[in-house]
Amino acid sequence: MKSFPVPMIPELNQTVASAAVARQDRLTKPPGALGRLEELSIKLAAMTSELVPDLSRRAVLVCAGDHGVAAQGVSAYPQEVTAQMVLNFLAGGAAINVLARQMNAEVLVVDAGCMADFAEQPQLIACKIARGTKDITQEPAMTSQDAEAALTLGIEIAHQQHQRGIRLLAVGEMGIANTTSASAITAVLTGYPPREVTGRGTGVDDARLQHKIAIVEKAIRINRPDRNDGLDVLSRVGGLEIGVMAGVILGAASQRIPVVIDGFISTAAALIASTLSPKAVHYLLAGHRSVEPGHQKALAKLGLQPILDLDMRLGEGTGAVLAFGILDAAVKILAEMATFEEAGVSEE
Amino acid sequence: MKSFPVPMIPELNQTVASAAVARQDRLTKPPGALGRLEELSIKLAAMTSELVPDLSRRAVLVCAGDHGVAAQGVSAYPQEVTAQMVLNFLAGGAAINVLARQMNAEVLVVDAGCMADFAEQPQLIACKIARGTKDITQEPAMTSQDAEAALTLGIEIAHQQHQRGIRLLAVGEMGIANTTSASAITAVLTGYPPREVTGRGTGVDDARLQHKIAIVEKAIRINRPDRNDGLDVLSRVGGLEIGVMAGVILGAASQRIPVVIDGFISTAAALIASTLSPKAVHYLLAGHRSVEPGHQKALAKLGLQPILDLDMRLGEGTGAVLAFGILDAAVKILAEMATFEEAGVSEE
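^ inputs. structure came back:
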């Protein structure tokens, strides 16, 4: 097992967390009555080391990459849709753009490994590692050098965002056929058989779902990824955008930036990150529960409970960014509510 | 059974709903991939008769009233907390104020039947019907005249809000001991025994929960409410604030204003409204799933699925107003996303 140089990830700040718990109990409501809003305010305090963190500077990193396994007919859409959607993100017309505008979050698109090239522009982080992955039914997705490069790039991007003043991140993705890769990663790292963690992705029919399950089984059989080594799993059955997302998670955690993961694919990236540094999970929040059957199993493995459950399965970071509104509510409750003393309300 | 004059409630606009369905299927995402955001955009179009309704003028009506049954020791808090919290709402320090500010919603407090009096002020709708209800373990909560007055007031308030330009409403409440009343209403109108729909409210312990269940059973035994007559149920085991909320639901539905209900108590009001006019349910959205065990059963009876599920149990309209952010997202997706043609993205 190769050792990848993971940045140092600090402990959660339990002192600030305790202060948040104490303040929640003085606010004018029965203790615990705001449920997960209370829990999230306490978690955010522990992550950021601030009782009331300023999360106003925020971004979603939409990481894009192509997958050689698309040639096996595992998606309802042709491979060129990856690049077409990147252009849609840059033009502001995709679902993630709409939700990010609502939540006052920047959309930054990372070309981690698309087949196509894109013109330079401010919202595009161009760091193409390769033109897509190889077909994982035939060979490893990428070299171990490229897997390391993807992680390193993700870590650097997180550090750059921290330097720009970003204090809350979401990770999302685009990549035709990347639920196939995510299913393989999830099967290997959770121990569930491929048929229990492979779903319909963009919406394939029953016959294509059976085919997709067989493809995932074959990818694992051919490549034999080492479940104890996230880097090996990434290079054998992963994706370039998945590697960058895993790196972003590690880099953000090292800077105390909370990262909201999105659906099945970004959660597969989180599984990889957690094998490289289990402490990275302390800085993760699960934005929503996806319809993909493997998502809940991956979240359970990470010990994360989704914030929203709205039958979504789009990716792009949509479920993560939508959850920003709930995080804002959690922080505002702690910051703005009156205490029993301030309001002159009798206690139990 | 007395006939209460329910205002005429229009049919949902299926033509506009079909236009919303058609537009969702042209947007740059796999069909259905935004799950409940798509469903909610279609429902809001059907309710308002507008493909992209302008929901920017919005309010939460926090209806407050006291309950005579508080004398039976069913709450963790003393009765004076009802009035203290009304003052907290008016001062802007309660949870509902924080969340309403985040969601750009007005907080209007309705004194439907508090023991205390309050000074006149812009955010207070003073329409005290009585100084609290009677103790429902001894006699009916209110006269049938007062029950009619509560419903009529609610209908009038909804009409006033419509005339002011409000196009989205949430209903919430405050009233020490009102989960006891809501449990009795829910038991009668869903058919479940009291022990299955009675919970811990503000947070009573096991012994007090058993006592509370016995109180609910006694209230139903003594008063024998007619499950086919919402007005009778309201007058025998209801609350003044619950009656006003039921009236608001009827009045808003008659004006095509979507109403987001909150937790267990506002849902009990919705059960009453639905017995008076089943069509009122077409204009309801369930903001969240409360921790109270009777809430899910009441929602199921109404055929409503909660938008959020965050272990909240505060009331005040907090879960309803928090869901405004999801409704905004639903409308913005339909309004702002690019179509496949506009973005030049290939389809299946």
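Chain A has 14 helices and six strands. The domain at 58-325 of chain A is CATH 3.40.50.10210 (Rossmann fold).
thumbs up if we can close this ticket
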